[in-house]
Amino acid sequence: MKKITTLFVVNYSEKGSAGTITEQVRPENFWVFTDEGVSATQKFDGTASLIKEGVLYKRYDAKPTKEASKNHIDGTAWNINDFRQVPDGAIPCQEPDLVTGHYPHWLPCLRERKEDKYFWEAFDLSSQLEDDSYELCGEKVGSNPENIIGHQLIRHGSVLCDLEDYSFDGIKQFLLNPENNIEGIVFHHPDGRMCKIRKSDFCIKR
Q: Could you state, in order of their start, the residue ranges of all structural domains in the chain?
């Protein structure tokens, strides 16, 4: 699963800033407004994972090394040699992004690896999980904003949002509504394309 882009253009004044959302739709995401069969689903706040042919994977981003980051000049492209060495068995999701510095992979979870403990806890508590991508959420995942007891693997795209107005203002009002206590929305195209919008893009606190 590639890194998915934000529905609208976000302008960043400086590296690490929150950014300013605009009403300009990113060109690659016009399908949200023009195509049939697009669905709006809840974006969960956790850690991405994957089940493929019964094997459990977690997301791993082979970002540039600390040394490369220290010497990098903002606004310039990364070099392919700047990225970390990819662990054995990792499956690349896309080519290295020389603009953003992201190089996402799926890394197999190992039962003997301590940091994979909660992935296995959620996996073992679920029955007959189909091959697909999931979000690991639970008590030991970040600050557990989803308020889940224990740990769960939540299938991506499984929870629909009751969003009828896909306009900029319609999406903003939906996310402002205190009844919609979610991180954001992921839009799904029938052909597999996706894009996202988060409360934080509008500077809305969850």
A: 1-38+170-206
